[in-house]
Design brief:
Helices cover about 30% and strands about 45% of the residues. It has helices at about 5-10, 35-50, 70-85; strands at about 15-20, 25-30, 60-65, 90-100, 100-110, 125-135, 140-145. A four-stranded antiparallel sheet has the order 1-2-7-6. Helix 2 packs parallel to helix 3 (about 70-85).
């Protein structure tokens, strides 16, 4: 990632990227678990391409079954990595509805276009190593490591 872009990202109070050996890490901050997962999706987009170049042209949806907030975060972000790897789909926005141990994600974005999207990093996976999700004082906080 360009140094200038990294500095701009650090100014966001919900998104603080950090270097992690050969991987990419991010600290997230949201008012809800749904918001935390949405922030994770946007962080993934920031690491992949410039979000300003991605439009909401298509909608896709999928369900996630989970047993913990950590599992919800990893499974949802992993699905987004899979969609980019297999279909070239870039997620610009996400709606997430949680009911019990199921979540319905509706994602909005578009297919990668090499004329408009310059790849910053190719994320291979969302890792469990270093993963932390915490609810504290009405906020949800997370640390996520992406295998780059």
């Amino acid at each position: 990632m360009e140094k200038r872009s990294r500095q701009n990202l650090k100014s966001q109070d919900w998104f603080k990227p950090f270097d992690h050996t050969a991987d990419l890490g991010v600290c997230l901050n949201a008012d809800s678990l749904e918001g935390l997962v949405r922030q994770g999706a946007l962080a993934l987009l920031f690491f992949t391409v410039d979000p300003a170049t991605v439009e909401e042209r298509q909608e896709k949806s999928f369900e996630i079954e989970f047993d913990s907030p950590e599992q919800l975060l990893v499974r949802t972000l992993s699905r987004l990595v899979f969609l980019f790897d297999c279909e070239g789909f870039l997620t610009r926005n996400m709606e997430l509805e949680i009911s019990g141990n199921m979540a319905l994600a509706k994602i909005h974005g578009e297919t990668f276009d090499k004329k408009r999207h310059q790849t910053r990093h190719l994320i291979k996976a969302v890792t469990w190593g270093g993963l932390e999700v915490e609810a504290r004082e009405g906020k949800f906080l997370a640390t996520v490591i992406f295998d780059d």
